[in-house]
Write a structure and sequence with these properties.
With 77 residues, the chain is mainly alpha-helical. The chain has one domain. Helix content is 84%, strand content 0%. It has helices at 2-24, 28-49, 57-76. The longest helix has 23 residues, at 2-24. The chain is elongated, with a radius of gyration of 19 Å.
Length: 77
């Protein structure tokens, strides 16, 4: 429980430090990217902290490129 509270507190500190400047300078696209990436990172961090199985991007890339790799290997051999 406490690690989740710590993650949320750290996220709140980042929001307090970054968002006012973005709003003041009207950086809407930067703010949207910041919010999406921060929310995704917070979600994955909380899931990892609670020992939930978190997907690994490397596995997704491997699954995608394995057929391509086999096709190229058959083509060149």
């Amino acid at each position: 429980m406490w690690p989740v509270v710590g993650l949320i507190a750290a996220t709140a500190v980042m929001v307090v430090l970054e968002v006012p400047d973005m709003l003041r300078n009207r950086l809407k696209k930067d703010l949207a990217a910041f919010a999406i990436l921060l929310a995704a990172g917070l979600g994955v961090s909380i899931a990892y902290t609670l020992h939930v199985a978190v997907w690994n991007p490397v596995q997704l890339i491997t699954r995608f490129f394995m057929p391509v790799s086999k096709w190229i290997e058959r083509l060149l051999s």
